[in-house]
Hints:
CATH architecture of the largest domain: 4-Layer Sandwich
CATH class of the largest domain: Alpha Beta
Structural class: alpha/beta
CATH topology of the largest domain: Metallo-beta-lactamase, Chain A
Oligomer: single chain
Mean pLDDT: 92
CATH superfamily of the largest domain: Ribonuclease Z/Hydroxyacylglutathione hydrolase-like
Shape: globular
Number of strands: 22
Radius of gyration: 22 Å
Strand order of the largest sheet: 6-5-4-3-2-1-22
Largest sheet: 7 strands, mixed
Number of domains: 2
Amino acid sequence: MQLHFLGANRQVTGSRYCLQVGKFEVLIDCGLVQERPYLERNWDPCPIPAHEVDAMLLTHIHVDHSGLIPRFVRDGFRGPIHTTRATEQLLEVVLRDSARIQQEDLEYKRKRHRREGRKGGPHPPLVLYDDQDVDHTLPLVKPIAYDRPLEIGPGVRVLFRDAGHVLGSAMIEVLVEAEGRSTRIVFSGDIGQANKPIIRDPSFFEAADYVIMESTYGDREHQQAGDIETQLADVIRETAERGGNLVIPTFAVERAQELMYYIGRLVRAKRIPALRVYLDSPMAVDVTEIYRGLSDFFDAETLAMMAEDRPPLRFPGLTMARSVNESRAINNYRQPCIIMSSSGMCNAGRIKHHLRQNIGRPSSTILFVGHQGTGTLGRQILDGAPIVRIHGEDHKVRAKIAQLYGFSGHADRTGLLNWLGHFKKPPRKVFLTHGEEQVALKLAREIEATLKFPTHVPTYREMVELE
């Protein structure tokens, strides 16, 4: 039995693993790489030919876990894609949006290159797949309920558990039975924080032979500078008093809905001025509509709000911008406002246009509420770059840059150690993925020192034999 590490190894994005059990091959996640230094990995041929893979397991909807699936289908994959019902319903929106953004970015770069007199197209070529590839992908998706075992291959059973990271997110337990022996492998996916709004808390496991665990925040705790609502209210009031706009780079799945949840509470409690709030992301708008129909995945608190006629994803002043014209119209609004737009790391999408309009204004605030990968535009701004390049032009950073703690959908160092500490005996090996190299290596040392679990941080395309 072999486990191939094909992405998110000593980096955060691009999660992808292949488990080989005899002749049966199953892929766990198939995500886009988003860190600039590693983008060309999206075009690397997979060392496991797509047509040879028998099945795929998808932990959740985020593009760094799902965004390369249509490319894998284009390359020949035809097996079932097992995931939760919530992820199944969200997947079409996410993948079509990804295809659209790739095409829009390509067209924009072509225009800029022609204007600058350049010859040849951009490199890498930007478009990994198109809408037709998404059409071929969606019929392969097969929903699976939490906590119901499913046999996906000879002697291979899987169990999906709630990861508490995003609606429909899952941790996956793979049980392999061969020659009278059983081996239990747990893929953590992205481990959520407890007590997050809308979604349920993450699940725990008590036994596994091998654990593949994320390590995004494995070297630090989430800073707590007061509760989230108070932090958000303070930033909104301060920006409005300066007469500027609050621009929030927003992940369209989960983060946008969580922001709406908190802003709605602040609006109803009259803790912030009456401002227009824009959600400018066709994908986030679509995802929000799908969320509203998946209430059976909500936590008890959110269900209670709905029962009391306080819908968490609707509030006075909220404007959904789906079309390009609706997005452009935001620039004509002259009063202070809140603009939530994707993508969350500022590496694509409409957020770039809003940054161009606001990053040079001292009255405006750019507020980060999520992880910013190495090399992304968001990371450059957050790290204090005085000048950033947006759409091929340099822009001085004069806006106030702020970061809100507590919004992260990932468990921090204590949360990860707590999750791992629920195993009643040491696994044979813990593999740390989905974290920057130094972060994962530091967490590995701490796991070995405190929990005494043998731990390894694999490299890109490393293959290990599982006993």
